[in-house]
């Protein structure tokens, strides 16, 4: 039995391998598994997109396909960029452009008015065709400017009030412990272990 995580993002794969290590199962990326599926993420929720990705190549013997959909939701922007986090401001826009637009739209807002969260839904497609999901968030605020070299994407502008820093200023180990993806992954790990225990 192996886990194939439907992503090509090496940053994600590092987090995933660290958390899934104690399952004892090999954890492969799409590329490592020889999968080059073009996946149309046309869902309207994180859950829908995660299930679309996990189910992209169909159930296979001895393989658990796992995928996540995650993004940043900013309350003052009506939940944007949400499921369009990676495509916000256009497919080719860099995160400096995306972050710049968010900062521009939140100008003049302070404290709780800048509330935001990272959301993550994990989906697993098991060999018998069953799909299970796990969901988690990391609550915070949009910072007034970017800070930090760790992390990726929106991390440099996501402020964690209880730590007094952005999620790009904490260590990868700490981020795994408190992040939306880390929490959803740990829940998914329990789902997978429960499934394997019943097989």
Description:
The protein is an alpha/beta fold and 199 residues long. The protein has a single domain, classed as Maf protein, CATH 3.90.950.10. The protein has five helices and seven strands, in the order βαβαβαββββαα. The protein has helices at residues 10-20, 46-54, 95-105, 172-178, 180-198; strands spanning 2-5, 27-29, 63-74, 115-125, 131-142, 158-160, 165-166. The protein is globular and about 55 Å long.
Q: How many distinct folded domains?
A: 1
Oligomer designation: single chain
Low-confidence stretches: none
Shape assignment: globular
User: Could you say what the CATH topology is called?
Assistant: Maf protein
Q: What is the H-and-E element order?
A: EHEHEHEEEEHH
Q: Could you say which structural class the secondary elements and strand pairing correspond to?
A: alpha/beta
What are the SSEs and their pairings?
Blueprint: E1 2-5, H1 10-20, E2 27-29, H2 46-54, E3 63-74, H3 95-105, E4 115-125, E5 131-142, E6 158-160, E7 165-166, H4 172-178, H5 180-198
Parallel strand pairs: 1-2, 1-3
Antiparallel strand pairs: 3-4, 4-5, 5-6, 6-7
Helix pairs in contact: 1-5, 4-5
